Amino acid sequence: MERSSPNGLGVCTKLSFAVGHFLNDLCASVWFTYLLVYYHNVRRFGNSAAGLLLMLGQVADGICTPIVGFETDRRSCFPVYGARKTWHLAGTLAVVLTFPFIFNPCLGCSDTTPEFAKILLYAPLIVIFQCGWASVQISHLSLIPQLACSDGDKVELTAYRYAFTVMANIMVYGVAWLLFHFQPTSTGDLSGNLGPQDIPIFRNLVLIIVAIGAAFSVIFHVGTKEEPRKAGQREAQLEVETAVESTPLLPANPCPTRVHMIWKDWFKEPAFYQIAVLYMCTRLIVNLSQTYIPMYLTETLGLHKNYIATIPLVMYMSGFFSSFVMKPLNALIGRYMTYFVGLIMVMAFSDWVWLGVPGNWVYAAALLLGAGTSTILVTSLAMTADLIGNHTECGAFVYGAMSFTDKVSNGLAVMLIQNLHPCKNVACCPLCAPFYKIVMIAVPGGVAILSLVMLGLLTIWPIRIRKGQTDGCSQTRAGIEGVYDQKFKD
Predict the structure, then answer these.
(1) What is the pTM of this model?
(2) How far is 108 from 456, CA to CA, in rounded Å?
(3) Which helix (H) or strand (E) holds 172?
(4) Which parts of the chain span the membrane according to its record (predicted)?
(5) Which of 447, 440, 446, 443 is nearest to 295 (CA)?
(6) What is the residue extent of each domain of the chain?
């Protein structure tokens, strides 16, 4: 495992690690922003059918994530290459081979093919894609605690990773804008409405982003070195890590060997559930606002279809610049206050939508939402890394469990919203406009209030792993933790 110095990781290591999720980020941007628009407005699926496809993908992803997390924490079939990188490679291949077909007309389909038959043809592709996506996500996230040399490195790796997430979204929306802008007038809709004539736009968009993402995945596999796990060495490694990390900051510890955790132990930790709910709320805010803002722009505000590229682009430009201040902001005011600042921006956006966003002020609202979602997402991921701490032996399982709550809740929320849609036919009716406005108020604002409650509970009961605290060393361990916390506060 490459570590440049006692002060932290090298820039090349950080960058090569950060690009490992770039393909996933590109696909996720297209998936959440354009899936409903593509299947409902372009392919002319019903609201419930489009929502069903998205929910199917989210549920498949949610089921795969804890399984992948559990398996990733075990030995790899290729121990020299590393368990996490092996799963990452397998997931990358699955994504590359299936995602382009999801945004293309199904093979053998015609205008007379029943809708349920089309759903059955797309379903296996979506399931394979989401399982591959989950493999890449969990294996990549679980490398953070393993690569990070310090608490600051965890935040920095997360910030670098999210900076590339935002860059991926910027790239998707930039390419989408170019494709819409230079669309031939013979195939485009002069009224600016989305329709079947836009199928080539989405096909070309997906082919471009998959090719670019695959190239960045190669950079990750070449530049990131995962320490291979060898039989009989793991327990010794854990003891060495504990001794090395505690030497500069802590007094002599009469209980030097920390407790080795397995996946079952996490279900006995209250902090595990606290972070799971907070992470779920964060992802609901980020993903659902990203999913429904295209419909809000086109149906509620009546804007040209180009805006489904430019407004999300503004959002993620704002998020990109916000990601660079995450580390100093965390150091200045702490994790919880940083998350609180992000929530305030999200709730301010919901209030703005409720009051009515006039004309070009929609760009300012997009800036606010982009900065807020970026802040809470980076901070929630850093809190998850805090929860794992030195227990990297099952870090992938923890990330998988967090992602399970995220994916399933997102899928169920989308299906619920789609079934509540007042327009039951393929085409939108006049009730679409107020409906999408309510969604953009209730989802970010309502879930932000729930996140605020969970943040308050974390303030009262901070993140702490209690396993092993009931033995004779509990008081000593508690005292050491107090010294450790005070050292970082000072």
Answers:
(1) 0.73
(2) 54
(3) helix 151-181
(4) 15-37, 89-107, 119-139, 159-180, 201-222, 307-325, 337-355, 361-384, 396-418, 438-461
(5) 440
(6) 11-229+259-482
The CA distance from 385 to 162, in Å, is 14
- CB neighbour list of residue 300: distance below 8 Å, 6 or more residues apart: 432, 433, 434, 436, 437, 440
* Look-up of token digits 């320490």: 227
Q: Which two tokens stand for residue 243?
A: 């001794």
Could you report the per-residue pLDDT of 423-440, keeping only the tens digit for each?
766 556 677 778 889 999
Q: Quote the pLDDT of residue 470.
A: 41
Would you tell me how many other CB atoms lie within 10 Å of the CB of residue 459? 11
pLDDT tens for each residue of 332-353: 888 889 999 999 999 999 988 8
Mean pLDDT for 69-80 is 65
What is the DSSP secondary structure assignment for residue 313, as one 8-state letter? H
Dist CA 231 CA 44 (whole Å): 55
Q: Class of 11-229+259-482 per CATH?
A: mainly alpha
Identify which of 2, 109, 126 has the alpha carbon closest to the alpha carbon of residue 52. Answer: 126
Q: What is the DSSP letter of 7?
A: T
Give the Cα separation of 130 and 136 in Å (integer): 10
Please list, residue by residue across 167-183, b when 16 or more beta carbons sit within 10 angstroms of its beta carbon and e when fewer do. bbbbbbbebbbebbeeb
